[in-house]
């Protein structure tokens, strides 16, 4: 009997240790993910802010004001030899009453064939111009040039943003590499929600974050990610 009690006590103690270690690991993972989310949002906000502050080469305000959502992918890497690829992560916020939604985390990837040597880091900004474009993004994956039409965006205060191609395009795309910012027509690029990150940071999928009835208010967003919607609101807010 005494031996049985001793074994039961030992087993309970081991379970307690395992449970404590698991809880600590979970807390550490959550803390690490929160820091990574804040860092991603800060990088995206910094890229957008830098571009919009260069007024002569920024996104035209009338075009930005028409956008339903804005995605920023900072530091996307493209490199390789003969067969290359793009890969990076970013955030997207959608318009909500008086501002912008909590940023959902998304991944960008795609292949390219050609003579490529070396690695280049490029920032991408995508304007999603209508609800259909936003809705397509929230599927398992969304291919630019496949399901969604895209157009290179104009730059500068005086740039015309009212041509037919701009009005009909679901997505207006830009890139910045080596300091040069310009419109870029993307093809074969796939964007998909990073719902592993979204669930860990918010407990919600990208679809719920951007379109759900229980959208997260600015006050309830994790403090570290607020910088991205706050930065978008500096340049465009519908009342």
Instruction: State the distance separating the first and last CA atoms.
Output: 75 Å
Give the radius of gyration: 22 Å
Weakly predicted, low-confidence segments: 20-28, 113-117
Mean pLDDT: 78
Per the principal axes of the C-alpha atoms, what is the gross shape? Answer: globular
- Tell me the count of domains: 1
| N to C succession of SSEs | HHEEEEEHEEHEEEHHH
Would you count the extended β strands for me? 10
Structural commentary:
The chain is an alpha+beta fold and 239 residues long. It has one domain. The chain is 39% helix and 30% strand. It has seven helices and ten strands. Strands 1, 2, 3, 4, 5, 6, 7, 8, 9 and 10 form a ten-stranded mixed sheet that branches. A hairpin with a 2-residue loop joins strand 2 and strand 3. Helix 1 packs parallel to helix 7. The protein is globular and about 80 Å long. It starts with a helix and ends with a helix. About 6% of the residues have low confidence.
Features:
239 residues, alpha+beta, ten-stranded mixed sheet, 7 helices, 10 strands, 39% helix
Task: Tell me the layout of helices and strands.
Blueprint: H1 2-53, H2 61-66, E1 69-81, E2 83-96, E3 99-100, E4 104-113, E5 119-128, H3 131-137, E6 142-144, E7 150-152, H4 164-168, E8 171-177, E9 180-183, E10 189-193, H5 195-202, H6 206-211, H7 227-235
Parallel strand pairs: 7-8
Antiparallel strand pairs: 1-2, 1-5, 2-3, 2-4, 4-10, 5-8, 6-10, 8-9
Helix pairs in contact: 1-7
